[in-house]
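Example 3.2
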Amino acid sequence: MQYPTPHIHATPADFAQTVLMPGDPLRAQYIAQTYLEDAVLVNNVRGIQGYTGPYRGVRLSVMASGMGMPSMGIYSHELFCCFGVKNIIRIGSAGALQGQIQLRDLVIAQGASTDANWGNQFHTPGNLAPLADFTLLETCVSAARDLGANAHVGNVLSSQYFYTDEEDIPQALQANTAWQRMGILAIEMEAAALYLNASRYGGRALALCTVSDHILNGTSLSAQERQTSFQQMMEVALETAIRLDVQPQ
C-alpha cells in the first residue's frame, strides 16, 4: 500500500515514530493544542485530525482512531504499514467491570480479549491472545507510578457492541458478569484490533484508558468531561512516549 492512503493524506515524514491515538478527533486536537509545541495538522481526511510537534524536545504525533475495531484497524494498519510508525498508544475511555476500580482511574491493558472475529483474518489455527508490547507496558506502568496515577493493569474486553437489542438486555448483563468473573477489568472497543495489527505488521502497541463509566453501579462522566478532563491519562501517555525515545526502537 502506498501513501497517501484513502484515509490519511500525508507522507511518512509527517509522522513521528510514536503516535498517541484517542478515539475522538476533538481530543486529538485538544492534546495537540495543549501539550505539543507548534503542532502541525498533518491529516484531516474525514475529520480524523492528526498532528505532529515536539513535546519536551521529543517529536510526537497524535491522531484520532475513530470508534470501534474496524476504524482502529484501518488507521493502525496504515500507520504501521504505510507511514513507518513504530509505536501506537491508544488513549481512550473504558467502562469498569471490577468493584475496586473507580471513575477516572486508569486501566492499562496488558491483554485485550474480544467478542469480535477480528483475528480470524490472520488464519491462525487457534485463538491468538492479543497482548500489549511489553516494553510499552513496562514503561507506561512505571510512568503511571511516578506520576501518582491510580492505575490497574490487566485484561480488558474489546467489544464490538455499544448498543444491544433491548430484548437481549438480560443476556448482555449475563455476558458482562461472565467477563467480570474472568477478571476482565474494563470494557472498551479498540485495543484488540490494535494489538493484533501490531503483532502482524511489526509494530508496538499499548492501550491506556480512563474509566469513564462503571458498569456495576451505573455512574459515568459527561461527554464534555470525556473530551477534556482526561489530563492524567494524557500525561502518563506523553511521559511514556518521552521515555520510549531513549530506548531502542
